[in-house]
Amino acid sequence: MALAGASGLCAALLGFAHAPTLLLGLVALVVAGAAGGLAGTLATTLLQLRAPDRLRGRVMALRYLTSAGLAYAGGLLAGGLTGALGPVVTVTGGALALAAGLALLRRPLHAAA
Question: Are the CB atoms for 111 and 22 separated by under 8 Å?
């Protein structure tokens, strides 16, 4: 379900990047926010359920550190790319990069023995 939310985020970002009107762009952003919130909430829940009790605090601290830290780094990168390539290319590229990451997550980590 978390992957479905992240997939919805990809689709909504693509819709936003290529929206022909402001209203459709705003609708796409609302959908992106809802899908991103769903994916983030479910990912956090899965981490809390799967982490051993003795490590749960450390796991959640690492999750916060990576999500908050990567948001700032991503904003810096996106700002530079937007200045160089334009907003449509930058948002489309970000959505496609997220989709590629999701495709990697869907693959099994270990081959069946």
Answer: no
CB 7 within 8 A of CB 106: no
Residue 58 three-state SS: helix
Structural domain boundaries in the chain: 2-105
Q: Could you tell me if 102 and 7 are in contact, meaning their C-beta atoms sit under 8 angstroms apart? A: yes
* Residue 102, pLDDT score: 87
| Token pair in block for residue 43 | 């990912």
Task: Give the C-alpha separation, 40 to 84, whole Å.
Answer: 30
Neighbours of 76 (CB within 10 A): 10
| Mean pLDDT per 10-residue section of the chain, whose length is 113 residues | 84 95 96 92 90 93 88 91 96 94 75 48
Which positions ≥6 away from 96 have C-beta within 8 Å?
A: 10
Phi, psi of 30 (to 5 degrees): -65, -45
**Locate tokens 């590629």: which residue?**
100
